[in-house]
C-alpha cells in the first residue's frame, strides 16, 4: 500500500507544524539563519560604503583647507617681503589676499571637520536590524515554550 500524497506534493512540505520533525526544523533554521546572515552582511556593506563616502568628502574638504592655508601662508610671506622691500601699497594687496585665503581655509576646515565628526564608527542600521532579529527569535521561542 502506497503512502504517497494524493496531490503529488512532498509530505514534508505539506505537513502540519506539529508533524514536522526536529531534523526538518533544524534544516529550515539553518537555511533561514544563512539567509539572514547574508542579508545583514549586505546591509552592513551598503551602510559602510555610505559612511566611507561621507568620510571621503569630509577629509577632502579638510585637505582643501590645509592647501588654502598653505597658499595663505605663502601670500603672507610675500606680503611681508613686499612691505619690507617696497613700503608701498603693493604689500597691502598681498596682505588682503592672504587674509581672504585664511578665511577660506578656516571655512573649509570647519566644514570638513563637521563632516568627519558625523561619520559613525559602526553600521547603525545593521545593528538595529540584528537586535530586531534577536527579539523576533526570542519571541518565537517564548511562544513555542508557552504553547
TrEMBL record:
The chain crosses the membrane at residues 59-84, 90-112. It comes from the Bacteria. It comes from Aeromicrobium phragmitis. Keywords: Membrane, Transmembrane, Transmembrane helix. This is Phage holin family protein. Residues 1-23 are annotated as: Disordered. Pfam families: Phage_holin_3_6.
